[in-house]
Every structure is written in structure tokens, then in C-alpha cells.
Amino acid sequence: MQTFSKSSPSGELHGSYDPRFAAVAKAFANNFEQHNEVGAAVCIHIDGEPVLDLWGGTKNTKTTEAWDEDTICVVYSTTKGMVALAAHTLISAGELDLDAPVKRYWPEFANKAKQDVTVKMMLDHSAGVPCFREQLEDGACCDWDFMIQKLEQEEPFWKPGTRNGYHMMNFGWTVGELIRRVSGQSLGAYFNAAVAQPTHADCWIGLPPELEDRVAPMIPFRPEKGAPIGAFTAALINDPNSIQALALFNNGGFNPNNAKCHAAEIGGGGGIANARGLARLYAPFACGGELHGHKFVDADTLAAMGEVAVATHEDATLLIPTRFSLGFMKSMDNRREQAVTKDSAILGGSAFGHVGAGGSIGFADPALGMSFGYTMNRMGPGILMNERGQSLIDAAYQSLGYHSNQSGVWR
């Protein structure tokens, strides 16, 4: 491993990397020099072993505290991948059946035309409950029981299973409650015991209070005045009762810089991690479902985790083309779309994982034995990846001999 040490406009950068991945190190430094990265980390494992682990910049712009190797931050919807990994350990163990009706495990959910929703529909965003119609009070997102009761009483926005629409925050409660019912543990506790602890991953759904001082404050994206807007933004501006507005704004007071939200188990977008933790978390799933003698999922479950379950030209929530496997994002190439926002996340064909708002990502690519994590505190534009994170992914694939992504996946 080669030592990485470099100055940047936002502070010192550190780490180490296998010389094969020099292009990723170069792209990481370039993000600070050319793309206004503030604080960030990227980590890559191959066959369960680290080949690149970089971090640096500024953790807190108000205090000028440096981003160190143990800095963690909110990863928004990258959390959904963490939830899905936990769910698949139960599926592999035979405790949770993908084709079973949700009412088998959660009888109270079979209400208001939701009696035919299956476990699979919960995982692939087709259950029909992407948001809440009734306004939620601030703080509601931190009250698990209240949010579950609201879901039980919510009517679906479409006939479940007939289309998919991104369940922005609700994925954490729909799938999370299934995990709680089946495992007998809270979502965060089960995730920690089943996936995070065995992989030694610094990833949390419900942060212990004693770790709060390690969290980097998130810096929201501020669009330029007069910049063109996409269909998603237009919908939430023009119709406060749209799925888009309700999904984004009616979230029960979620605040990524609030310690109470950090401590709550908000599986739709409140997870906290760093790049090293995400790379460790996905490593077993890049290596056949087993690592260092610990089996997480069987071969059939792992195969299903990487297969496209739903795809559409217009996601009912995001209003862009999307592709999902069971709980994970697949490569999404919208570069040629006519829409103003060409939101994409371009991965290898076998890869599965999840992007978070602002640009974080964690994923596994079983074809390469590769697991990848990227976290940052300055959020970028769009719904999927922005140029900073995508440049790191591109450099990783190119370092491994991949030559083109014009097909929509790296090959």
C-alpha cells in the first residue's frame, strides 16, 4: 500500500492505496481542488481486503475541525441499503418470505386496501405508501411506534404491485417494521448484531450518544438562483399535495444535524457511517455472501439481491427512470434523458447498493469481489450521484480494467 498525503483547499488529505488504484486517489484529490469538496472519505475493498482508504478535508466549517479517519456523517438514503442487507439475512435464514403477504408478519398493516401487499413489494418500492397525506408534527420521525401506526392507517397511492415509486423515508419503516416483527429486535439493534458488528463496520441506524462528537455536520445543497428545475422539483413546488412534496417535506421533522434524529432509528435516511464502514459492510456480499468464516446469506439470496426486480421509465415519486433490485439501487444511466436533471448512478452490471441524497454511496460488485463506500459532508445536486462520487466510481472501474459505461453499466 502506498501512503497518500496531500494538501487541498479544504485541508489535509490522508490514507493509503494500492498503486493499481492511483486513479481513484487522483480523482479524490481533484474533488477538493476542482469540485468544492469540503470533507470526505472513500474506501474500496477487493475480496474483503482494503485496497484504498482515503479521507480528509474539513469536518466542521464553523470550527474548522479536520475530517479525520474516524469521522462519520449522515448518509441519507444510503441507509436503505443497510436496512436491505439486514432484511436479506432474515430472508436467507428462512425467517422472512419474499412472496408472503406482509399481514403474515404484521397483521395491522393489512388495512385500507393494503391486504395484498407482499414482502417483495415492500423491498422494491411498489407497496404504494411512499409518503403520508396527513401532516406530521416535528419530532414524529423519532417516534417509531407512532410512524408505524400512521403507516397502518395510510391508504396506498396506487394499487400495490402495479408500479413502483421511491419510498423516500417510508422504506425505513415498511421494511424496518418487518425486521422488527420477525427478529424481535429493533431495526438498529438487529442491523448492528446481524451485519455491522460481524463486519466491524462503523455504520449505525440509531447512533449511540457517546459517538455524537464524531459526526460531521451536513452542508445542504443550495441551487443557483434561476437555475432550471427538473420534474421532481417542479412537482413539489407547484403542488403541496403531490407525492413529491409530501415525500420530501412531510417527513416528521427529520433534521440531519439534530442529535435526537441521529439517535433515532430512521432507516429511510437517518443512518450514520463513513466510507470505511460502508466498504466493510458490503464486503461479504461482494464475496459470495460469506467472509472470514461468517456466512451472511446463501447463494440464492445473494443472486436475488443483484437482480433487477422493478424498472420504469418514470418512477412515481422521483419522476425519472429507475431500476431497483430487492432493496437496492442498480446502475441507473439517465445521461441521455431529455429531462433537465440527468440523475444517474452508473455501476457495474452485477453491482447493487444504494445512493444517499447529496451523493454518498455504498455498494457491492460480486463480479469483481469489490465493495465501495463514499461519504461526504457537502451535499451535491440531484437525486442520485453527482460528479464527485461518480468520478471515484468511474476511476475504480477503470483501475480494474473496465473500459466503457456507454451501455449504461461499466463493462
Would you write up a description of this structure?
With 411 residues, this protein is of the alpha+beta class. Helix content is 30%, strand content 17%. The chain has twelve helices and 15 strands. The strands form four sheets. Strands 1, 2, 3, 4, 5, 13, 14 and 15 form an eight-stranded antiparallel β-sheet that branches. It has a three-stranded antiparallel β-sheet with strand order 6-8-7. It is globular, with a radius of gyration of 20 Å.
Binned, the helix content reads 25-40%
Extract low-pLDDT stretches.
Answer: none
The level-1 CATH class = Alpha Beta
Cα-to-Cα separation, first versus last residue? 26 Å
Main sheet record: 8 strands, antiparallel
Written as H for each helix and E for each strand, in order along the chain, the element string is: EEHEEEEHHHHHEHHHEHEEHEEEEEH
Question: How many DSSP-defined strands?
Answer: 15
Query: Which superfamily, in CATH terms, is the homologous superfamily?
Result: DD-peptidase/beta-lactamase superfamily
Strand content: 15-25%
How many helix segments?
A: 12
Please give the radius of gyration in angstroms. Answer: 20 Å
Known CATH architecture: 3-Layer(aba) Sandwich
Q: What spatial form do the alpha-carbon principal axes imply?
A: globular
Q: Classify the fold: give the CATH topology.
A: Beta-lactamase
- What is the domain tally? 1
